[in-house]
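Supplementary Text 2. Reproducibility record for the structural model of the 220-residue chain.

All settings were left at their defaults, and a single model was retained for analysis rather than an ensemble. We include the record here because the model underlies the residue-level annotations in Supplementary Table 4.
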Amino acid sequence: MQKLPYTAFVAIASCGLASAATTLTPSDIHGGVTTNTSFANGDVTLTPSIGGAPATFGGNANFLGIPGGSNNNAFDDSDTDATNDNGEELTMAFAPTVGLTQIAYNFARADGGASDGVFISGFNSDPGVTFSVSDASLFAVWDGVDTVRLNLPGALFSTATVISFDPAASAGETLLLTISDTTQAGAQLPIGSITYDTIPEPSSTALLALGGLALLRRRR
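Retained model, structure tokens:
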């Protein structure tokens, strides 16, 4: 019987683990109306809120946000008080094998000290945040528990940027995005798109590994 080369096993395993990322635009999420209080497609549920209270998505085709505050087409905090519960929020609840991979935006302003920026909590591990734009004032800080702080400087206000995450860090988790800036009113993040990807189930990965071991034994 012809032996299957190891390289062939690698190719088979790679195909088995491959997945296609899904990108949601604002129109995909709110359908062009301003009355939707949530979006769900079986992979992810997105829910807007203000200070924990239910809210609705705006209807802008290019930017996802909540009507009101300092920007009708953004998630924002209209003042410098981080304790008055008027900050706008986005909850992202992912299915067990689905995780966040990217958030894209064209302009944002939320930076400063440890209490300032865009905060995303609920990760099960460090999401390894990277940015498509290189700038010393654009960075992420992991708190070592479940939250990452994104420092999004106003100096890059008109710069299209993609924030990337390791999807395994949020698979099956519920993330909460909040925004705060104690140094300037009108901190905001208008989201251009949200992308998620599928994480292979442990059972699938184990089966591929066992198959690989069997192939390697047959080579001997």
